[in-house]
Amino acid sequence: MTEHLEEIGVGPWRGEWPTDERYDPELLAHGDRRNVGDQYRYWTREAIVADLDTRRFAYHVAIEKSRNGDPGNRRPGTTTRLMGHPDWFSLQSRRVPAPSR
User: Fold this and answer.
1) How many whole angstroms separate alpha carbon 69 and alpha carbon 54?
2) Confidence class of residue 93 from pLDDT cuts 50, 70 and 90?
3) Alpha-carbon distance 43 to 96, whole Å?
């Protein structure tokens, strides 16, 4: 059985190239197969980051290592840090020892 793989992204730019410096000539010529939103298609990485920087807001992501050693968490660790506003959880921000194996 032959598997049909759909090509991701877009091919070379059709028509006159844009003059905006955010566009990458290599991507315009050969197509953009990156996993980016359509609004960033053909843009340089630096231009995408600069645009995202104008929309960022301050937040933190807390990652909890599960007690069973979740296979998705390949980084060894001895503690899990719970962080956040004191009203968010009763433990507030304190270190919790990792379970011993």
Assistant:
1) 38
2) very low
3) 44
Q: Label each residue of 73-86 as H, E or C.
A: CCCCCCEEECCCCC
Q: What is the pLDDT of residue 92?
A: 42
Q: What is the largest CA-CA distance in the chain?
A: 63
Q: Select from 4, 58, 10 the least CA-distant residue to 36.
A: 10
Contact in structure between 62 and 82 (CB atoms under 8 Å): yes
91 and 82 Cβ atoms separated by less than 8 Å:
yes
| Cα 87 → chain centroid | 28
- Confidence check: pLDDT of 34 > 90: yes
Whether the model clears a pTM of 0.70, i.e. scores above it, the answer is no
Phi, psi of 8 (to 5 degrees): -95, 145
Euclidean distance between CA atoms 88 and 90, whole angstroms: 7
The tens digit of pLDDT for each residue in 64-74 reads 555 555 545 55
